[in-house]
Amino acid sequence: MEKISKGLGLVERALEILEKYKIRTVFKGCFIILIIAAVIGFINNPTWIFDKYQEWEEKQHTEKMELTYKNNEKLHIITEKLLYKTDAKRVMVLSLHNGNESNGGLPFAKCSAVYEALNDNVPPIAGQYQETQLSLIPFATELFKNGYWCGDVEELKRYDKGLYYKMKSNETEHFAAYVVRGIDGPLAFIFVSFDPVDTTHKCTDVKESIIQTGLEMAVLMELNKR
Q1: Quick one: what percent of the chain has pLDDT higher than 90?
Q2: Angle subtended at Cα 38 by Cα 32 and Cα 41, rounded to the nearest 5 degrees
């Protein structure tokens, strides 16, 4: 009963204040009190806001990194699935990015291998495709234009002799390539290599599998980017 009486006393006092002053004035007074309290708190502990902001920033960074690790794991699995689905020798994903700027202020468009799935007894070659200037891969222009390409590496000679010899040096005779596109533009290339030429597969079948994989990758890459 004593607690109830105290509670009722507070309610009566609050009602008296509301009767004496307008509600708008009461809210203004509360707001001013909060500002004064915040200023006093900041004076007593000037690093509090900075510390809280740093804690929030670290939490956001940790959450983003955890999401990125999860998405990267999924991208690895998707790459492996495409390898076995197409019965390919190698599947490689090359991420498109910008590097340093030239003297004219124009960014250098580059690509780097970020995921690689290998069949049995196939050596990795992802290290050969790091920070590669797209200006050194004329085939990229053809790929951007059509979105998909499939055929024997011999056909590359008319587009890109450099890539042709690189493919030949890695004992690739037949391959398919696809552009993974995101909201703002291209995100990556997918290269699917076959060696020796597998007569059981068709470029149309590979196209269907690689497009489906590209759509799945686009979603995860956009999440990583944003």
Answers
A1: 35
A2: 140
The pTM for the full model equals 0.70
Contacting residues for 58 by C-beta, under 8 A, at least 6 apart: none
Q: What is the pLDDT of residue 213?
A: 94
Question: Residue 153 in contact with residue 187, Cβ under 8 Å?
Answer: no
Helix ranges (H only) for the chain are 2-20, 23-44, 48-86, 139-146, 161-169, 203-225
CA R_g for the chain: 30
Task: Determine the length of the chain.
Answer: 226
**176 touches 210 (CB < 8 A):** yes
Q: How many CB atoms lie within 10 A of CB 114?
A: 19
DSSP 153: G
Average pLDDT, the chain: 81
Give 118-124 contacts, CB < 8 A, sequence gap 24+.
118/83, 118/89, 118/90, 119/83, 119/88, 119/89, 119/90, 122/89, 122/90
pLDDT of the residue at 25: 67
* Cα–Cα dist 102/111, whole Å: 17
In tens, the pLDDT along 5-28 reads 665 566 567 666 666 666 666 676
DSSP string, 74-110: HHHHHHHHHHHHHT-SEEEEEEEEEEEE-TTSPEEEE
